[in-house]
Amino acid sequence: EKGGHDYFMLKEIEEQPQAVADTLLGHFANGRIVLDEQRLSDQELRDVDKVFVVACGTAYHSGLVAKYAIEHWTRLPVEVELASEFRYRDPVLDRSTLVVAISQSGETADTLEAVRHAKDQKARVLAVCNTNGAQIPREADAVLYTRAGPEIGVASTKCFLAQVTANYLVGLALAQARGTKYPDEVAREYLELEAMPQLVARVLETVEPVRALARELAASPAVLFLGRHVGYPVALEGALKLKELAYMHAEGFAAGELKHGPIALIEDGLPVIVVMPSPKGRAVLHSKMLSNIREIQARGARTVVIAEEGDEAVRPFANHLIEIPASPTLLQPLLATVPLQVFAAEVAQTRGYDVDKPRNLAKSVTVE
Ligand code: F6R
């Protein structure tokens, strides 16, 4: 049942191309993005003037990615917040606010209470969920199901990629409702998404060197992760995977924050994993990251760089280079996250830990 793997999680990492493909399936028909359930009118969707994304843990990281896409495609302001913070605040919401609640289980207590908090103030709720008929989608006004299949490993992997995919679909659904994208533009973005499962599969075919590197770095006291733009949530997710699976001190930073503190942590031999934006995307992101890598390398960091194939400029600054296929900038998290999952799983196994059942953690956090 583990498909020849020692752990469910390793099988689930391999299932990611399918999880992304299945999540897309049926959500684009007759030239339109379609949700699974919609109990609000198209007019109500069109009238949305602000979006809050609420979630916990890995689902929250998928929400951070969503912010970049939704703002870019819809010109709506998007705030992403941990459900446990949102629910105890007094957020400014009304009937034209859309709260997107992301939850694999659909039963996470804080996310569910955040949904109720939003509904009390008449906000509309759209759930992104992997579990049919769970409490959060039941209480939502609209639902888009991720179709990753059951996830047994406590650490979320394939559900993260499915959530990121679903969030793009939510962004396109809003762009379509608001008319900020013409139908042919929505169709073109959808086609880009449809190409991703194959690219995720290509990343999986080339991760063997990541495993070797993980074994080499397994005794490190700490690992830092750096990213910018959509690479920033990827860095946070890479660090979370390493914490929860390998019990290693790991932190993710926005690269632009380095000079504001974290660079003080850099010392000789410290592994720093850097998520490099596409050289063909926004040039400024790429060149700023290059100078960040140069700075940390000059201070002795051992740089592990995840970069697009053909990114020659980054080579001199990468002690270890992990190449991923080219993709549109906004979609890169679907590729860049995969080597980080593999890395964390391999470090954990090298250290002798059960990656399906990390200590102190439960799959579904239904109590607070
Ligand atoms: C980390 C992980 C958790 C969950 C979080 C939310 O690998 O799995 O951080 O993402 O507990 O769970 P759901 O998505 O079920 O609400």
Automatic annotation (TrEMBL):
Signal peptide: none annotated. One of its GO terms (molecular function) is carbohydrate derivative binding. One of its GO terms (cellular component) is cytosol. It catalyses: D-fructose 6-phosphate + L-glutamine = D-glucosamine 6-phosphate + L-glutamate. It is found in: Cytoplasm. Its EC number is 2.6.1.16. The active site is at K363 (for fru-6p isomerization activity). GO terms for biological process: carbohydrate metabolic process; fructose 6-phosphate metabolic process; protein N-linked glycosylation; UDP-N-acetylglucosamine metabolic process. The keyword Cytoplasm applies. It comes from the Bacteria. Its main location: cytoplasm. Residues 41-180, 213-358 form the SIS domain. The keyword Ribonucleoprotein does not apply. Keywords: Aminotransferase, Cytoplasm, Glutamine amidotransferase, Repeat, Transferase. Homodimer. Catalyzes the first step in hexosamine metabolism, converting fructose-6P into glucosamine-6P using glutamine as a nitrogen source. This is Glutamine--fructose-6-phosphate aminotransferase [isomerizing]. It comes from Speluncibacter jeojiensis. The lineage of its organism: Bacteria, Bacillati, Actinomycetota, Actinomycetes, Mycobacteriales.
